[in-house]
Amino acid sequence: MRFGAARSNACGAVHRSTIQPGILMAVTRHHVGPRLSEIAIHNGTVYLAGQIAEDTAQDIKGQTREVLAHVDRLLAEANSDKAHLLSVQIFISDMANFPGMNEVWDAWVAQGATPPRATVEAKLANPACLVEVVVVAAQRG
């Protein structure tokens, strides 16, 4: 099928591809380093790199608060906020910390706009890090 052609699915609904050959959608990156960018924005969608606490002497609640403050700051820089979250992945080093992390999360997340979320136990790159958060969000307006 050629680009831009209409097609029908089994239910008869018509979908139209808006991709045209030779046209690339721009990707904007912020805080670009040799290994990763903290923010990538494409077609109104904001992708954040995994966020960890800088002060790893804190307990799970302190690290989670710090990480979510990083998320707030980066989303604001990308013209988004926690009310526009599309998906969140949370990695914690020990599931025993799940209740403490959730306590901070519940106080932070925008009620009525809670995103799809997965939380898994994982061995993080820095053993002192207790939580890492990966976010995908839509830009505002």
TrEMBL record:
Q: Could you tell me which SUPFAM superfamilies the record lists for this protein?
A: YjgF-like
Residues of the signal peptide: none
Check the record and name the InterPro entries matching this protein.
Answer: RutC-like_sf, YjgF/YER057c/UK114, YoaB-like
Q: Which domain of life is it from?
A: Bacteria
One Pfam family per UniProt: Ribonuc_L-PSP
Fetch the PANTHER family from UniProt.
Answer: PTHR47328, RUTC FAMILY PROTEIN YOAB
Indicate what this protein is called per its UniProt record. Answer: Endoribonuclease L-PSP family
